[in-house]
Amino acid sequence: MTEAMYARVDAMPAADTPPAGARTLAWSHSLPAGVSITVHDDLSTVANDWRAFEREADGTIFQAYEWLSTWQRCIGGPHKVRPAIVVGRDAAGSTLFLFPLSVRKTGFGRELRWLGSDLCDYNGTLLAHAFSAMFDEAAAVDLWRAIEQRVQQHPGLGFDSINMTKMPATIGAQPNPLRGLVLAANPSGAYRTALGTDWETFYSEKRSSATRRRDRTKRKRLADFGDVRMVNTAGDDTRTALDTLMAQKARAFAHMGVANLFANPGYTDFYRALIDDPSTRPLVHISRLDVGLTPAAVNLGLVWRGCYYHLLASYTDGEIMRFGPGAAHLHELMNYAIENGCSVFDFTIGDESYKRDWCGEANTLYDYIAAVTWRGALAVGPMIVKQRVKRWIKQTPIVWNVFSHVRALIGSLARRPSVH
Predict the structure, then answer these.
(1) What are the tens digits of pLDDT across the range 352-380?
(2) Does the first or last residue of the chain, that is N or C, have fewer Cβ atoms within 10 Å of its Cβ?
(3) Angle of helix 374-395 versus helix 397-415 axis, rounded to 10
(4) Are residues 273 and 143 in the same domain?
(5) Is 2 helix (H, G, I), strand (E, B) or coil?
(6) 313 and 165 share a domain?
(7) Which domain covers residue 396, as residue numbers?
(8) Model confidence over 203-250: pLDDT tens digits?
(9) 62 and 84 share one domain
(10) Cβ proximity of 68 and 279 under 8 Å
(11) For 400, phi and psi rounded to 5 degrees?
(12) How many other C-beta atoms can be found within 10 angstroms of the C-beta atom of residue 392?
């Protein structure tokens, strides 16, 4: 157990509202004068303020209202996830921060986590530019304790444990306000690179002449199978491309021996809603790299406030795969991002080797796991052990390679038809 876990196990038990006489969570420093906190368990009650705030606040696409409201409609709501949106305002009523939290039932009570956490590559808050000037590290921790208390006391939002994952060290240009908590490094890193104003210049700066020569050779070999071109989809073609991406990814997942992401309840509905709903469609960029009549690679990206998020990518498993259609498509995507005014290309979470080729070192993401009740303590201990083992495996190249090969072998055996 972590220090935070030991410190919190005697807090109030989980309930829809805290029972009479329960110990409340206290904090040692006063909040700045005039700062108020409200908790909303219905997204619609805060939708307008949220949309307005995200246009100017520091944060990522994964804290945007349209992204999270779509997740709650397709996945969270059907699985009884309760939103807990915490909004802070100053004395003049201006929004200072928005924490998109949620509470869900688990096998050991109820858990506080980020809303949409599983499908958000970065979890965190939206911050006004003035936030860090008002809250130093100690004050930010006090603020978090106040938020915990307000959520815990809100009807229907009592929780036993906290499981907040994939948090970046900074929110925009500001330090993450939760940096003062007892954090552990997430098993996976994240990668992003600044783009230039011209693709050829950027490409030459990032890749050696030998690598560029190999890329040209592979592109020529792809062209032996037919005309190579990137297609930015629209209308019905977008749905067809998304279906192709999901089918290609499903085969890749099976080959790696991992569970199919799109088999999770509501996940396919979520991605289809992103491209079908007029409110989210402008955020989504779906493209294909066609080689002749073959959709050799497909990508689902997000474009938001000058950043291109490289979210889901797939490629064919045919002979064409030997000549790198995924890499060729990535080059086209970076060129597209530059031409459309993006200054950053974000590869998001995951330690695939090709990301290091473009970005160098990974950005560390952090997790905060803590118990609030004895029920939570039962859940948190195994979670912390699992997290540490997973990070050791993923961040130790020899171990990770062995693990990946064994997992793929088990997956291939599971796919092999039985003989009767």
Answers:
(1) 889 999 997 889 999 999 999 989 888 88
(2) C
(3) 100
(4) no
(5) coil
(6) no
(7) 3-185+364-403
(8) 999 999 999 999 999 999 999 999 999 999 998 999 999 999 999 999
(9) yes
(10) no
(11) -65, -40
(12) 12
